[in-house]
Design a protein that fits this description.
With 163 residues, this protein is α+β, with helices and mostly antiparallel strands. The protein has helices at 13-21, 26-29, 117-147, and strands spanning 2-9, 35-40, 51-58, 61-73, 77-85, 90-99, 103-112. It has 3 helices and 7 strands; from the N terminus they run βααββββββα. Strands 1-7-6-5-4-3-2 form a 7-stranded antiparallel sheet. The termini are far apart.
């Protein structure tokens, strides 16, 4: 399964990326209605090599895993990949880009492959709409959280009196 979702955010890119990078805020927006645990195993700041312990439930199955931040390019990209666990099955990417003078675009891609052969492929297919909905809800929570910060856009500049 490969699911990609986008959202526009009405704050500058550096504010959006800073919000994303704040480990204390992850639980506010991270996808996965069935997340049982999300524990940083590495001290902040978030950087390539940072690891996290996760446990979540999907289709009645509990998955326990360790993920690692494998790519981080400030204001552009973040990639998390599962490195160990019950089943190696997922990777997620966050793509950041500017949108207009003071806005941003955020795209989240989740790639997951469930085990269990043909049954896993069928579960991937069945779960795609649920995963898409979960990602879209997570992005809405992210947008609401970052836009609620006390960000003040720059005041318009006056060109009066210039020759």
């Amino acid at each position: 399964m490969d699911v990609l979702c986008h959202i526009g955010i009405d704050v500058p890119l550096d504010v959006v990326f800073s919000y994303y990078s704040d480990q204390a805020r992850l639980q506010e927006w991270i996808p996965g209605g069935g997340i049982l645990e999300f524990t940083p195993l590495s001290a902040p700041p978030k950087k390539p090599g940072s690891r996290y312990r996760m446990a979540y439930r999907s289709f009645g199955v509990t998955f326990r895993l360790i993920t690692e931040l494998t790519a981080l390019d400030t204001n552009r990209l973040s990639v998390m990949e599962q490195v160990s666990g019950d089943y190696k099955c997922f990777r997620y990417e966050m793509h950041f880009s500017p949108a207009g003078a003071n806005g941003s675009q955020l795209a989240m891609r989740i790639t997951a492959r469930l085990p269990w052969g043909i049954l896993g492929s069928f579960a991937d297919w069945l779960s795609r709409p649920l995963v898409r909905g979960d990602i879209e809800k997570a992005l809405q929570r992210f947008k609401a959280g970052v836009e609620a910060l006390e960000y003040q856009p720059p005041a318009p500049t006056s060109h009066a009196g210039r020759v």
